[in-house]
């Protein structure tokens, strides 16, 4: 065999190997895209199927409506947390901030006999104020979001208990019950509220500077800064947006339980963060979407409802929720490692 023929044969072998690598990388990328897009929905269906097997009477229309109703508050909180997580932050205070917003609503409407509508604005304003404080401490004092919001968790809980003297407040007007317990065309009103919040949040995330810059900041804060984005200002606005949704969630929950309870929100932050991560958002920032957060919230509500009908004690439920959060973070870690692996394969 001539030298020329050997070189041509080697070149052909190299070409075949390169094509095989491209096919393999393309195959992995396609499956990865499918997993990223439909993974949360598949996990939700798996949980529903598992609950149905464990409890045959689980999958009924009334139960599904109840799950949807129970998921609304968690989903609204998750949507608020989503934008914070996309920007590379975290908010552990959303649960107790919801309690404090609820208490301010009760103080105005029940204790002061003020207007219900003004009281709802006060609740939303309280949430926004807490969010702005969190954002300011994170953006301008350069404090870690985990520490800031963990501290705010305790502050909000303490203020809620102080303002209410540690007792629940009762005596909201009857019409307030429609917000959390009414129905339109047989569908609970909170589900309509969630749908409106989801549409608005999706618009903010995709079509406004606040959303686009949140992705940019989460992807690379330094690159965003060099591109001329006012990173500090937008971080404050992102936490303020989260606070507004916390206030809305407090109104829905207060109407559902027909009271202002100073301790009811503690623990909701775990569900919200788990829902966001299960829905495909990354705790390192730069990725996530509203539909994923809602699916994650539905999964958390499904798990809690299923555990309740199976008579699992609240203490064991906390163990299960904690385990789900750890698994969700682990899945996020696997996503990051897989993406790095694909990047290396593309670079070869």
Could you state the oligomeric state of the chains shown? single chain
Shape, per Cα inertia axes: globular
Biggest sheet: strands side by side, in what order? Answer: 1-2
Number of strands: 2
Largest sheet: 2 strands, antiparallel
Instruction: Return the average pLDDT rounded to an integer.
Output: 86
CATH class: Mainly Alpha
**Helix/strand structural class:** mainly alpha
Low-confidence stretches: none
Give the DSSP E fraction (strand runs of 2 or more residues): under 5%
What proportion of the residues is helical, as a percent range? Answer: over 70%
Q: Provide the number of structural domains.
A: 1
End-to-end separation in angstroms reads 31 Å
How many H/I helical runs?
A: 13
CATH architecture: Orthogonal Bundle
Element order: H for helix, E for strand: HHHHHHEEHHHHHHH
Work out the radius of gyration. Answer: 24 Å
CATH fold-level topology: ABC transporter involved in vitamin B12 uptake, BtuC
């Amino acid at each position: 065999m001539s030298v020329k023929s050997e070189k041509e044969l080697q070149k052909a072998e190299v070409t075949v190997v390169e094509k095989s690598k491209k096919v393999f990388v393309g195959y992995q990328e396609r499956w990865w895209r499918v997993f990223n897009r439909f993974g949360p929905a598949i996990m939700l269906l798996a949980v529903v199927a598992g609950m149905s097997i464990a409890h045959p009477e689980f999958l009924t229309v009334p139960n599904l409506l109840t799950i949807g109703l129970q998921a609304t508050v968690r989903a609204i909180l998750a949507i608020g947390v989503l934008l914070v997580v996309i920007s590379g932050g975290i908010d552990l205070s959303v649960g107790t901030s919801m309690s404090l917003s609820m208490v301010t609503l009760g103080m105005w409407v029940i204790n002061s006999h003020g207007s219900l509508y003004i009281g709802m604005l006060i609740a939303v304003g309280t949430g926004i104020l807490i969010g702005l404080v969190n954002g300011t401490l994170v953006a301008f004092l350069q404090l870690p979001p985990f520490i800031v919001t963990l501290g705010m968790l305790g502050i909000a809980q303490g203020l809620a208990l102080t303002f209410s003297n540690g007792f629940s407040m009762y005596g909201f007007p009857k019409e307030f019950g429609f917000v959390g317990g009414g129905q339109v065309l047989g569908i609970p009103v909170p589900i309509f509220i969630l749908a409106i919040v989801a549409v608005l949040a999706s618009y903010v995330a995709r079509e406004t500077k606040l959303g686009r810059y949140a992705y940019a900041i989460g992807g690379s804060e330094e690159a965003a800064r060099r591109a001329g984005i006012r990173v500090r200002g937008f971080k404050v606005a992102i936490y303020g947006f989260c606070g507004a949704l916390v206030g809305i969630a407090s109104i829905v929950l207060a109407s559902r339980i027909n009271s202002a309870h100073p301790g009811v929100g503690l623990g909701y932050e775990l569900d919200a963060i788990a829902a966001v991560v299960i829905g495909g958002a990354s705790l390192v920032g730069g990725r996530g979407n509203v539909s994923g957060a809602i699916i994650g919230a539905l999964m958390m509500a499904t798990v809690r409802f299923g555990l309740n009908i199976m008579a699992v004690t609240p203490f064991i439920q906390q163990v299960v929720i904690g385990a789900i959060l750890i698994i969700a973070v682990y899945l996020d870690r696997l996503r990051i490692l897989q993406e790095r692996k694909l990047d290396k394969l593309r670079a070869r």
